[in-house]
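Re-run requested by the PI after the first attempt was lost when the workstation crashed. Everything re-entered from the original request form. Ligand of interest: 2'-deoxycytidine-5'-monophosphate.
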Amino acid sequence: MIIAIDGPAGSGKSTIARCVAEKLGGVYLDSGAMYRAVAWALSCERLLDTDDAVLERALPSLPLEFVVRDARLQILWRGAPLGLEIRTPDIARAASAIAQKSPVRRFLLQHQRRLAQDTLVVAEGRDMSTVVFPNAEVKVFLTASPEERARRRVAQYHEQGTHADYQVVLEALKARDHADAHRSLAPLKPADGAVVVDTSGLSVPQVAQVVMDLVESAKSKNARRKGSRAD
Ligand code: DC
């Protein structure tokens, strides 16, 4: 089963996807981390501004690995796990920029589908339910006001020990929303059939419950379909 959760930065995707994956014993796939890791790798190799033909050749030979360990995506750079270094505002901005390039999207799409093979996956990002897993059994689009999302981001940066100015974070978030939603390739938008949930004012358990209810009804629908095929 694939549960695809899309939405803008700070909408609560990661927290909810992680929580639902834990409840279901499935794999949590953070596709944003994959875009951030590619931005990190291209920046290390001084390839951020290169053209598509060079990118196409360079991407498969980067010393970057995407593996599933302990039911989560782990990203290795030169054999060592990437962590907070990809969670900075600069890498967020670079990730949003390289996410507009087709060689990058093709490269990551193939890894995302490979990682989701033969397992229950809760995948979150911008195009999980529209492009990468269009046949996902559950499709959710999480959203919240930009102000609420900026407050959450500032709190996250503080937890990581980084000072962040609310106004700067809010402006950067709005700019990234605009870039992610208006690009020509796989723009951020709710998929056909996705359930849109505004998480402003809702607690994590409340949103997780909405998703769990959708999972339950998708399971019953599957069971009914299998039953009617067996008749
Ligand atoms: O979810 P995030 O903030 O970690 O994502 C970083 C950037 O990566 C985001 O601004 C756009 C891009 N991205 C994407 O284009 N498609 C995805 N499925 C996930 C992220």
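Saved to the shared folder this time. The chain has one domain: 2-201.
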